[in-house]
UniProtKB/TrEMBL annotation:
InterPro entries: AAA_dom, P-loop_NTPase. Residues 13-171 form the AAA domain. Signal peptide: none annotated. This is AAA domain-containing protein. Pfam families: AAA_31. SUPFAM superfamilies: P-loop containing nucleoside triphosphate hydrolases. It comes from the Bacteria.
C-alpha cells in the first residue's frame, strides 16, 4: 500500500478537497482506498464526505490509550477486521476514518505517539492506497505523520501562496533532522500571470510541482465563505467538471498507483 499525506502550510488551501478527490478517483478505478482525516483543527461539520460522525478517530485513539496501559505503543496491533470497525463506508466504496470531535485530542500529550501507532496500523492494511488528510498546524504530531508517508503533497493555492513560507517551513523541518525528499507540490488553482511561474516555484522550493488543479466552475467565491465542504465527489461526475477531474487523474498517474 502506498501512503500519501496531504498537507499545506496555511489552512484552507484545499487539502481536504484534494485528499478526498484523489482518494475517490482511485477508488472509482476499482482500487481499495482508505481516506483518514487527521485534521485536529477543522470543525466537525466540515467533514469531507457528509458521512455520519461515528465511529471515528477518537474511538480508535481511545482504544489505543486503553491498550497503552498494558503495553508499549509500538506493540499495539490491530487486525484488518478490528481496524475496519473504526471506518465509515462511503457509497463509492471508500473507507473513511473520520476525525470527529478531535480538537481536544490535539492537546493529549501522547498524541504524536498515538497517531504514529494509528498510521503504522493503517499502513499494514491490505489496501492499495492510504490518503492522510492533515491540518496545517506546526505540531509534532504532523511531523510524525509526514515521516510515515511515501509521498507528501503540499497543496498551495495561488491567492495566498507564499514561496517564502514554504522555503522556511522546509528548512525548519530539515534543521530538525526531518527528511523532505518525498515532498511534492500540488498547485490548487491555475497560477495567474501575476504569480510566480511553476518553474520558479520549483527552483525556489526545490520541490517538484506534481499537478495543477483548476478552480471548480461556479464555486469560486461562495464555497470559500461557507464552512461546509460539499458531500459529493467531483470525480464521480467527470462530465460536469472535465478539467478538474483530468487534473486529479494526472496527479494519480504521477503517483503510479494504477499502473
Ligand atoms: N479547486 C477548487 N475549486 C473550488 N473550490 C475549492 C477548490 N479547492 C478548495 N476549494 C474550496 O475551498 C475551501 C477550502 O478547502 P479545503 O479543502 O477545506 O481546505 P483545507 O483542507 O486545506 O483547509 C472549501 O470550501 C473547498 O471546497
Ligand atoms: Mg481540511
Amino acid at each position: 500500500m502506498k501512503t500519501v499525506v496531504i498537507h499545506s502550510i496555511h489552512p484552507r488551501e484545499g487539502k481536504t478537497k484534494i485528499a478526498k478527490e484523489l482518494a475517490g478517483f482511485v477508488q472509482l478505478q476499482g482500487r481499495q482506498v482508505i481516506l483518514a482525516d487527521l485534521d485536529f483543527i477543522a470543525d466537525p461539520h466540515r467533514r469531507a464526505l457528509g458521512l455520519p460522525s461515528k465511529p471515528n478517530l477518537e474511538d480508535l485513539l481511545q482504544e489505543i490509550t486503553k491498550q497503552s496501559d498494558t503495553k508499549p505503543f509500538f506493540d499495539i496491533q490491530f487486525s484488518k477486521e478490528q481496524l475496519e470497525e473504526f471506518f465509515l463506508n462511503h457509497q463509492s466504496g471508500l473507507k473513511v476514518l473520520s476525525s470527529e470531535n478531535s480538537k481536544k485530542l490535539a492537546n493529549d500529550e501522547d498524541i504524536a505517539q498515538k497517531l504514529r501507532t494509528t498510521v503504522r496500523n493503517l499502513k499494514k492494511m491490505p489496501y492499495d492506497l492510504l490518503i492522510l488528510d492533515t491540518d496545517s498546524s506546526n505540531r509534532d504530531y504532523n511531523q510524525v505523520v509526514l515521516q510515515e508517508a511515501d509521498l507528501v503533497l503540499i497543496v498551495m493555492d495561488n491567492f495566498r501562496y507564499n514561496v517564502k513560507d514554504l522555503v522556511h517551513y522546509l528548512r525548519d523541518l530539515n534543521d530538525m533532522g526531518y527528511d523532505t525528499d518525498h515532498f511534492r507540490i500540488v498547485l490548487n488553482k491555475i497560477p495567474n500571470p501575476l504569480q510566480i511561474p511553476v518553474e520558479e516555484l520549483e527552483k525556489e522550493s526545490g520541490l517538484k510541482v506534481m499537478g495543477i488543479i483548476p478552480v471548480l466552475s461556479g464555486s469560486i467565491s461562495p464555497s470559500y465563505d461557507t464552512q461546509t465542504e460539499d458531500i459529493h465527489l467531483i470525480v464521480s461526475q467527470p462530465e460536469k467538471n472535465p478539467s478538474f477531474v483530468q487534473a486529479i487523474g494526472s496527479v494519480v498517474d504521477e503517483l503510479g498507483i494504477l499502473s
